[in-house]
Specification:
Layout (H helix, E strand, L loop, with lengths): L1 H20 L9 H6 L1 H23 L2 H24 L6 E2 L3 E2 L6 E4 L3 E4 L4 E8 L2 E9 L18 E6 L2 H4 L9 H8 L3 E5 L7 H10 L10 E8 L3 H6 L2 H4 L7 E5 L5 E6 H4 L1 H11 L2 H6 L9 H21 L1 E9 L5 H17 L3 E3 L12 E3 L2 E4 L1 H16 L3
Parallel strand pairs: 7-8, 7-9, 9-12, 12-13
Antiparallel strand pairs: 1-5, 2-5, 3-4, 5-6, 10-11, 14-15
């Protein structure tokens, strides 16, 4: 029996090696290829590898250990199945931006993961549990930024560059209800530029800064750069199991170098293929669905420091390209104790790295549904955007 098990193990290893040799070697093992051809990936790579490992353990380990391992694996499988059946079903969220007269609103980008199509008009209808939350129109300019109407007023001689995610972009609100728009409305001397894109985080801000070209994109001579940061953005820097296996799998993957510098190591799929594949297994499990746990469970000081360093490097690079009066990070949207702990970790790291910030987590009652789009949609409402913009203008542009 032992010889038979070893022979099966060798056969399975041969299948794996042969398959990899036709696909470019070990570099083939990543989430993109699993999603591209899941059947072949599973049948010619994953299953033979598992069978080989099982046969090898059965042939070399004491029988009692092998039996216990088999029972443990079966119990985990049963537990996962039970968790999937018992997991509460969240209301279905449906509706993404649909370009009017175009092929797509989001386009793949090798540097940023994805960008918005330039010069595009899109309609976004969102429903939660069958109830419509909003129905709005988005417009992008020729640079792929959400258009921010300047409005009437004097000649605008300074700029405010807004960076961030869907809250800066203005998901669910009109062109004249975004953070950038209200900033320009409250500060008539400043023109706002909206570099926010749904799903983005600090790593995308750094990637934009490293890409460069801002001098050709900004008309005014000098001004400010503002980053809107929420607790979920740390996950987008470190590549959590939800981010790195979903919309952000091609986001920039940054690591801290031996001298404390910020280095890019590709994206989450190719820069750390095995961890991201493992995260994918977890994200698809019934246990993840039942527990609602995103990995890593807790962020470390290294995670917070990396987030702060990414923003510090973005600030330095933007200052090389533009005449910046200042760079500031706005901290916002802490709805519970866990999110407040994340904000505290980010705040301490920003202070340690010397990155200016404004803590707006207590600016208004986060339990008041007026300041979000709906009971179950926590994006900033127009009312929240107006309050934040007015405080920013008072704190930064017209210092108290």
């Amino acid at each position: 029996m032992r010889s038979f098990l070893l022979a099966v193990s060798v056969l399975c290893v041969t299948i794996v090696v042969s398959w990899l040799s036709t696909r470019g070697g070990v570099s083939y093992i990543n989430l993109d290829n699993f999603l591209r051809e899941p059947l072949r990936f599973s049948m010619l790579l994953v299953m033979p590898a598992l069978v080989a490992a099982g046969c090898l353990m059965a042939a070399t380990l004491p029988r009692v250990i092998t039996v216990n391992l088999a029972v443990g694996i079966c119990l985990i499988g049963l537990l996962d199945t039970g968790a999937r059946l018992l997991a509460p079903k969240a209301p279905a969220v449906r509706g993404e931006p649909e370009a009017l007269g175009g092929s797509a609103f989001y386009l793949p980008d090798p540097t940023l993961g994805y960008v918005m199509a330039p010069g595009t008009v899109a309609r976004h209808r969102r429903t939660i549990g069958g109830t419509q939350i909003y129905d709005v129109i988005y417009r992008t300019d020729d640079r792929g930024r959400r258009d921010t109407p300047a409005g009437a007023g004097p000649l605008r001689t300074s700029f405010v560059l807004w960076f961030g995610d869907s809250n800066v972009f203005g998901e669910g609100v009109s062109q004249t209800e975004t953070l950038p728009y209200y900033t320009s409305e409250s500060a008539p001397d400043y023109r706002s530029y909206n570099y926010g894109v749904s799903g983005y985080g600090p790593s995308n801000v750094l990637a934009l800064a490293r890409r460069g070209g801002f001098r050709g994109e900004v008309t005014e001579r000098e001004g400010y750069a503002v980053v809107f940061l929420i607790p979920a953005h740390v996950a987008r820097v470190v590549g959590s199991s939800t981010v790195s296996t979903g919309w952000g799998r091609h986001f920039p993957y940054y690591v801290e170098g031996p001298r404390g510098e910020v280095l890019r190591a590709g994206d989450f799929v190719h820069g750390r293929p095995f961890l991201t594949l493992g995260y994918s297994l977890w994200a698809r499990s019934g246990l993840a669905e039942y527990l609602g746990v995103d990995l890593p469970i807790r962020y470390t000081e290294d995670d917070y420091r990396l987030t702060a360093k990414v923003l510090k490097e973005a600030s330095r690079l933007l200052a090389q390209q533009l005449d910046l009066r200042g760079f500031v990070v706005i901290l916002s949207q802490a709805y519970n104790d866990a999110q407040r702990r994340v904000i505290e970790g980010v705040r301490e790291a920003l202070a340690e790295e010397g990155v200016p910030y404004l803590d707006y987590t207590g600016l208004f009652d986060t339990g008041d549904v007026r300041y979000r789009l709906a009971e179950l949609d926590f994006h900033n409402s127009a009312a929240a955007n107006r309050v934040i913009a007015e405080w920013l203008v008072a704190d930064l542009l017209h210092a108290r």
